[in-house]
UniProtKB/TrEMBL annotation:
Domain ABC transporter stretches: 18-253
Xref: Gene3D superfamilies: P-loop containing nucleotide triphosphate hydrolases (3.40.50.300)
SUPFAM superfamilies: P-loop containing nucleoside triphosphate hydrolases
Pfam families noted in UniProt: ABC_tran
Listed InterPro entries: AAA+_ATPase (IPR003593), ABC_transporter-like_ATP-bd (IPR003439), ABC_transporter-like_CS (IPR017871), ABC_transpr_LolD-like (IPR015854), MacB-like_ATP-bd (IPR017911), P-loop_NTPase (IPR027417)
Domain of life: Bacteria
Keyword Protease applies: no
Keywords: ATP-binding, Nucleotide-binding, Transport
Record-level Gene Ontology MF annotations: ATP binding
Name of the protein in question: ABC transport system ATP-binding protein
Amino acid sequence: MSRKPRTDHSEKRGEIAIQAHGLVKRFKTGRTFVEVLKGVDFDARHGDVTMVMGPSGSGKSTLVAALSGLLKPEEGQVRALEAADLWKLSPTRIDRFRLDHCGFIFQGFNLFPALNAKQQVMTALHYQGVPKGEAHQRALQALEEVGLTPKMNQKPSEMSGGEKQRVAIARALAKNPNLIFADEPTSALDGENGQVVIRLLRRAATERGAAVICVTHDPRLEAYADRVIHIEDGRILDDVRRTPDANPAPLSH
Ligand SMILES: Nc1ncnc2c1ncn2[C@@H]1O[C@H](COP(=O)(O)OP(=O)(O)OP(=O)(O)O)[C@@H](O)[C@H]1O
Ligand SMILES: [Mg+2]
């Protein structure tokens, strides 16, 4: 069996890509435990942009971390693609799952300080087993899509916050992942670049069949969503399916 992951998942559109049951996450602070996820059920489908909204501290980033194999919940299961229970896999296999199937766009950018923009994207593809020539082409294309061709030889220390965020986005999208986890992907961007990013996420879902899970505070991004889930104090408050707007109003700030 080829190890190289498939990059087009459009035939799976509408199927459940990830499904969680009864997620409970507690953090110890001092001598007490604080329950941050209080029995969360969640699912997301291929081809959908699923938005997760809620106040600061409500558990959104914790939920994404539990869904994506980054932070083990105390209770509950996560069925993700072919993995019946992600958290029953060995740490090595969880790492492999993330590498092969997930793209991450996080609040912190998690870039390598020593690498320039092109190398950041190519390195992610290299770990995935993509040959060098193809990795180079895909990196150039992904950087062009986020408007960073002129900065492709610059390192994170030589880039603005918004530029770094766009490198992280190019790196995540170049992999053509099954699952894209975006945590406030537009928070460091101006209106125009925010728009570029949300459109790329929309396209990854529509054209490639990725399941995009996008945490945001920004109500203007709702226009791009197939589904909006509100979370408050570690619980899902509501879950609404909608049709993405055909012509969303431009973002401006
Ligand atoms: N490692 C940790 N140890 C203790 N408490 C934590 C830890 N990580 C998160 N928390 C707490 O869990 C709660 C939820 O955090 P989380 O980061 O999931 O919130 P969020 O909804 O993503 O908020 P924001 O919109 O500000 O990013 C917060 O009250 C936070 O203080
Ligand atoms: Mg957060």
